[in-house]
Write a structure and sequence with these properties.
6-stranded parallel beta sheet; 24 helices; binds adenosine-5'-diphosphate; binds zinc ion; 32 strands; single chain; Rossmann fold
Length: 732
């Protein structure tokens, strides 16, 4: 007796056994491949489940097993390599397989609907229609005529039927009689072509040659190239070579804001089908991209993090651009690293993986120096561009307006007068981070989080950027009724207000997640900026990440102090990456660029390192420190988090977990905590965490598995929400 072992969307870390649907032939079951969608009853609902394997024994007696309802696919829609990848990911990240499988499918298929190919709508005879004797529909001449056209057996395009005078209504009545069925004439993949490339510089040519010398099989390459060194040009050449081999290329990029720009460059170079994945797509568009990638129609697939799980008929190259970016790590639910999964995918698909960045993560630098990755360097900017000049402005005692010192305002003015663009970086949206009462000291605390609510002055609101809570901006202090309410600190809206009046008549764009809603907004802004007219760009990281604005020659970091005092072990790495990336927006074309960083701590080691050392040199110093302290990439971390409306239950749970798990820990693994989370209360929930530190990969995985197994046995688990985060990005 065959048993279907299934992954079912549920938070349980296990598979579920079912009997096959009642009417299904045993022989057919032996051909079912993993990944096949199957509808099953689950509790009181019907859900889409995913086949893991067909087996013959279950731990549960057969008369206790339920029957599946329907097998939805005649063959698995996923290539076996992608199944291997997701099985690995579920195991490595200790995430329920039933929540990993659905991530591989677009909504339509998760909902259990039929798989549709991309192509032209068409009709074909059903088995019943094919067996019908001629003249059986004598009384419906139109329908007889339609049957005659379809009699050859091959599907006929709906458009061809229409031009033969057979209407859609006629076809629908044939379908109702069970004689004809709708189908799709699959589109044929077309050969891609590429247009002329730039002349590669000597450095670019050397990198391209050495990547290609690595062959078409798996190898991981780290391209560490300073900002503006022309990494995209290298990607384009490697993709062209991949397409020449008849294979597909997958490109992962960090942010939605990058998509229009990246797409534009790719479209300019290739006459090829490009499938896009980003959060701005409708379900139908996402389905089209997915199916184009899966069927091999798309030559190039570009997407953010989750695109790493796109099925590909014919993968030949995987690129992760800005590989250091923390948006590659999913921060909730299935907490995978898109970059690390991409490297694993390259191994499984046996194709090269390229990680590119001007500011690689210490993990990747470590892998490159140990020889696990091949390391390629680009030390100069492409074309005629040179690296920008860097300066720190000591803002102590200086009058600041809109956050800017007189010296910087002067530079802004001059830059605009020269017809160039200015980029001002301030990583805080809203008007002011806090509202304070000058008389009694009250501050705008969020009632559900251990944080303050941000002032959004134009909307007259206080908003919590952590839980989304909102309230009216008060006119009086809620505590003492005083009218002396003051705005503490500076946000982009406040800076904007000052700059608009100070530089009246100049063009200014504010770019943050409040002002840029949706992909189209960013796309049209990027187009506007790239027209090159003088303007001030004021924004958060959304504005700086990876963009190429040739006319920007002045970059100012309005407030570096906010970046300097992170408690997290990655704080200095992040700071160095951020400053280098922001600075890297200046002077990317022929005009030289300047970067000014304002700080009250001009002698802070991180700022000195920024001005006196390259990122490459600084990163190596930071890496030595990490290795000396046993922190990643030297050791490995996992974080168990608890989230509970009760103040103490989470801590008790983690305490018990530690007591139970500790005696079983493998050598080299150590538990730290429980401790309150960096923000101990968020959205009304009390949060605690237990940290697992392991000296090496093997003990890390073994220890994490043991902890999860123990946690799943603790009765208290039902009283709270707990999660495990393997290779967490931020501890604090
Ligand atoms: P990166 O991604 O390394 O920051 P980009 O790929 O955005 O750099 O390239 C920066 C600029 O240099 C772009 O305008 C690009 O067109 C130009 N560029 C790249 N390679 C060359 C080359 N070989 N010759 C001339 N210009 C180049
Ligand atoms: Zn007050
Ligand atoms: Zn809140």
């Amino acid at each position: 007796m065959s048993i279907l072992r299934l992954a079912i969307p549920s938070p349980l870390r296990r598979l579920f056994d079912y009997l096959p649907p009642e009417n299904v032939d045993e022989k057919m079951l032996s051909c079912l491949a993993a990944g096949t969608r199957i509808r099953v009853p689950f509790g009181k609902r019907e859900v889409t489940a995913y086949l893991s394997e067909v087996t013959t024994h279950s731990g549960i007696a057969n008369d206790q097993l339920r029957h599946a309802i329907e097998i939805l696919d005649s063959q698995s829609l996923l290539p076996p390599t992608l199944l291997a990848l997701s099985t690995w990911a579920a195991g490595y990240y200790l995430h329920p397989p039933g929540e990993v499988f659905p991530a591989l499918f677009p909504k339509r298929l998760r909902d259990g609907k039929a798989h549709l190919r991309i192509g032209e709508p068409a009709w074909q005879l059903s088995d019943r229609g094919a067996g019908l004797p001629a003249g059986a529909l004598g009384r419906s001449p139109r329908q007889s005529e339609a049957l005659a056209v379809l009699q050859g057996g091959a599907p006929v395009a709906a458009s061809a039927l229409a031009s033969a005078g057979i209407s859609a209504a006629v076809m629908r009545s044939l379908r109702e009689k069970g004689l004809a069925e709708a189908c799709t004439l699959p589109r044929q993949a077309r050969p891609p072509a590429n247009r002329e490339a730039l002349d590669a510089s000597a450095e670019q040519a050397a990198v391209i040659a050495s990547v290609l010398a690595g062959g078409a099989g798996f190898a991981c390459h780290l391209i560490e190239g300073v900002t503006g060194s022309g990494k995209t040009e290298i990607y384009l050449r490697l993709i062209a070579e991949c397409l020449d081999r008849g294979k597909q290329a997958l490109i992962l990029i960090p942010e939605i804001g990058l998509t229009p720009q990246t797409l534009q460059r790719f479209e300019a170079r290739f006459d090829a089908d490009i499938a896009l994945f980003h959060s701005g797509l409708s379900d139908a568009q996402r389905y089209q991209s997915w199916e184009a990638a899966r069927s091999g129609l798309a030559h190039i697939v570009i997407g953010t993090r989750s695109a790493v799980f796109t099925p590909l008929a014919n993968p030949g190259l995987i690129i992760v651009d800005e590989e250091h970016d923390n948006s590659f790590k999913q921060q909730d639910g299935f907490r995978y690293s898109g970059r690390d999964v991409a490297v694993k995918r390259g191994q499984i698909e046996n194709c090269p993986v390229i990680l590119g960045s001007a500011t690689p993560s210490l993990e990747s630098i470590h892998n490159a120096t140990r020889g696990r990755y091949q390391h390629h360097l680009l030390t100069t900017r492409a074309g005629d561009a040179s690296m920008p000049a860097l300066a720190i402005v000591d803002t102590r005692k200086l009058p600041l307006r809109g956050g800017l010192s007189a010296a910087v305002l002067e530079q802004v003015e001059q830059t605009l007068d020269r017809g160039q663009q200015v980029l001002l970086f301030l990583n805080r949206r809203g008007y002011a981070p806090t509202l304070q009462c000058h008389d009694c000291g009250w501050t705008s605390q969020c009632s559900d989080c251990d944080t303050r609510m941000t002032v959004h002055r134009r909307q007259q609101r206080l908003r919590c950027h952590h839980c989304g809570a909102q309230s009216q901006l008060p006119a009086h202090c809620p505590n003492c009724n005083s009218r002396e309410l003051v705005f503490l600190g500076l946000g982009t809206q406040q800076s904007e207000e000052f700059l608009r009046s100070h530089f009246a008549g100049r063009t200014l764009f504010r770019v943050d997640s409040d002002s840029m809603q949706g992909r189209e907004a960013m796309a049209s802004l990027v187009a506007e900026i790239n027209r090159g007219d003088p303007c001030i760009l004021l924004g958060t990281q959304m504005l700086t990440k990876g963009h190429h604005f040739p006319a920007v020659t002045l970059v100012a970091v309005i407030d570096a102090d906010a970046l300097l005092f992170s408690a997290d072990f990655r704080g200095e790495e992040r700071m160095a990456q951020l400053l280098t990336q922001v600075a890297g927006r200046a002077g990317r074309a022929t005009e030289p660029g300047r970067v000014i960083v304002q700080s009250h701590y001009p002698d802070h080691p991180a700022l000195l390192a920024f001005t006196e050392q390259s990122y490459a040199a600084h990163a190596r110093v930071l890496l030595e420190q990490r290795l000396a302290t046993g922190m990643p990439p030297a050791g490995q971390l996992a974080l168990v988090r608890s989230d509970c409306s009760d103040a103490t239950v989470g801590e008790t749970f983690l305490h018990t977990l530690r007591q139970r798990a500790e005696p079983t820990m493998p050598a080299g693994a150590m538990l730290i905590g429980p401790l309150p989370a960096p923000m101990p209360r968020r959205a009304g929930k009390h949060r605690h965490q237990l940290l697992l530190h392991s000296k090496n990969r093997r003990s890390a995985q073994q220890a994490a598995r043991l902890i999860v197994a123990e946690a799943e046995k603790l009765p208290l688990r039902h009283a709270l929400k707990w999660t495990i985060d393997i290779d967490p990005q931020d501890l604090f």
